[in-house]
Amino acid sequence: MASNPRSSIGDMHCNATALRKASRRVTQLYDDAVAQTGLRSTQLAILVEIAHASEKPLTMAELAAVLVIERSALGHTLRPLERDGLIVLQEGEDRRQRHVVLTPKGKAKCREGVRAWQTAQERFEEVLGRSEANALRSTLLSVAYNDRLTKLKD
């Protein structure tokens, strides 16, 4: 059963607050699982997205769109991965375009991270239930990729 030390009226009515609280809790779980690899769960998610696009490397803009993150914030997040030799940024067709590519070291770190991630995934599904976790993930992804939720003006 979930512990709730102190609930507020905002918990009952604000979707954004509830999502942030849940996100922080789940991030703690996944960060704990992948900590042994030297990665944070957010970094592993980036490596996994890059790995899935290995046939045609993603541009920075494409990766930002897939991750639902501002391009400038993505650049900040990629710096430690580049510094540690896990990714390289390659010029695209024109100088403004940069492709994000996993290095061999990055591919190995990604595989290591996914193995550690599996522990958190199993715990989450054990606590929530496998079918409930699948339904929640589907709902959350439909929210994440719904352009109508970007701004109030259509």
Largest sheet: 3 strands, antiparallel
Going by helix content, strand content and strand pairing, the class is mainly alpha
Q: What would you give as the CATH superfamily?
A: Winged helix-like DNA-binding domain superfamily/Winged helix DNA-binding domain
**Spans of at least 5 consecutive residues with low confidence:** none
State the share of residues found in helices, binned by percent: 55-70%
CATH topology: Arc Repressor Mutant, subunit A
Rg, please? Answer: 18 Å
H/E topology pattern: HHHEHHEEHH
Strand content: 5-15%
> What's the CATH architecture?
Orthogonal Bundle
| Basic shape | globular
| Count of beta strands | 3
Layout of strands and helices, then pairs:
Blueprint: H1 9-13, H2 15-34, H3 41-52, E1 58-59, H4 60-67, H5 71-83, E2 87-91, E3 98-102, H6 104-128, H7 130-144
Antiparallel strand pairs: 1-3, 2-3
Helix pairs in contact: 2-6, 3-6, 6-7
Describe this protein's structure:
With 154 residues, the protein is mainly alpha-helical. The chain has one domain: Winged helix-like DNA-binding domain superfamily/Winged helix DNA-binding domain (Arc Repressor Mutant, subunit A), CATH 1.10.10.10. 64% of the residues lie in helices and 8% in strands. The chain has 7 helices and 3 strands; from the N terminus they run αααβααββαα. It has helices at 9-13, 15-34, 41-52, 60-67, 71-83, 104-128, 130-144, and strands at 58-59, 87-91, 98-102. Strands 1-3-2 form a 3-stranded antiparallel β-sheet. A hairpin with a 6-residue loop joins strand 2 (87-91) and strand 3. Helix 2 (15-34) packs across helix 6 (104-128) and helix 3 (41-52) crosses helix 6 (104-128). 16% of the residues are buried.
